Amino acid sequence: MKSAVVQLPGLNRDRDMIAALTKISGKAPVTIWQTETDIPDVDLIVIPGGFSYGDYLRCGAIAARMPVMQAIKAKAEAGVKVLGVCNGFQILVEAGLLPGALMRNASLKFVCKEIQLEVVNANTDFSRAYEQGQIIRCPVAHHDGNYFADAETLRTIEGNGQVVFRYAAGTNPNGSINDIAGIVNEKGNVLGMMPHPENLIEAAHGGADGRGLFASALDVIAA
Amino acid sequence: MINARVTVTLKNGVLDPQGKAIEGALGALGFDSIGHVRQGKVFDLQIDTADKAKAEADLKAMCEKLLANTVIENYAISLG
């Protein structure tokens, strides 16, 4: 499985993401710069975290309107898997690839800590290496991770099983509605999540619970 | 040249933690009369046309495409 990592000014988790993809798939991902409109043939495109364009206007708002996002949208429509982590999730909702919005944390504080995630749908391309209902550890680091969707959208995504990860009881760090931490689109090939699975993939990180997500998306054995 | 002002506010029912914090701070300053506070954004834009209808149509498109996130925000356009 071939992967690609998008690089935009202000993103700062790209190297962590490249390291995780390289270690888990055994192949270094290609990198895509913001102005590129011709994305190479890959199976997984990852938009990493950071503060693209200084988070001006709204988090992810400017990035979502760059030419590279049109190309990513076309790839997503063609069935290529797209993963957005943290700022990447914010970019995907701003680009309309995922429903809802990500707002300022209810506490108004930047949160940087480890939380627990419940895998509420283990039947997706991004979560099949986990057990349904499994609780995994995962770090978060964000200021605007408070997921919001109107009542109708919420009913739809909950009804379709589009909620993949929820903050486990008592660990919601940002006030997200229904404790939502990660969702997929209706087709199931685009996942956005606020926590950082790429930062918990090996013993040196203190655990490897994040590995299952990449193993699922890259179709390799989690090990 | 037409001067325009776009005001972007959160929709009703959308939690506004920043507005809440400001509300608390105003109360702490002794403004007993303070009720609810909602925070929004103001954009002052110059539109290079004399045609008000075109300016309005362009501004509406700008709001829909970038200035507001219509999932959570409303916008209002006023021409100067």
Low-confidence stretches of chain B: none
- Largest sheet of chain A, if any? 9 strands, mixed
CA radius of gyration of chain A: 16 Å
Tell me the overall shape of chain B: elongated
What is the architecture of chain A at the second tier of CATH?
A: 3-Layer(aba) Sandwich
Strand content of chain A: 15-25%
Radius of gyration of chain B, in angstroms, nearest whole number: 16 Å
CATH fold field value of chain A: Rossmann fold
Number of individual domains of chain A: 1
* N-to-C order of helices and strands of chain B: EHEHE
The portion of residues assigned to helices of chain A is 10-25%
Number of helices of chain A: 5
* The CATH architecture of chain B: 2-Layer Sandwich
CATH fold topology of chain B: Mth169, Chain: A
The span between the termini of chain A is: 17 Å
Low-confidence stretches of chain A: none
Give average pLDDT of chain A, whole number: 96
Short overview:
By secondary structure, chain A is an alpha/beta fold. Chain A is built from five helices and eleven strands. Chain A has a single domain, classed as 3-Layer(aba) Sandwich (Rossmann fold).
Question: What is this structure's SSE topology?
Answer:
The complex is a heterodimer of chains A (223) and B (80).
Chain A: E1 3-7, H1 14-25, E2 30-33, E3 44-47, H2 67-77, E4 81-85, H3 87-94, E5 101-103, E6 111-119, E7 135-142, E8 146-148, H4 151-159, E9 163-167, E10 180-184, E11 190-193, H5 211-218
Parallel strand pairs in A: 1-2, 1-3, 3-4, 4-11
Antiparallel strand pairs in A: 5-8, 6-7, 6-9, 9-10, 10-11
Chain B: E1 2-10, H1 17-28, E2 40-47, H2 52-67, E3 73-79
Antiparallel strand pairs in B: 1-2, 1-3
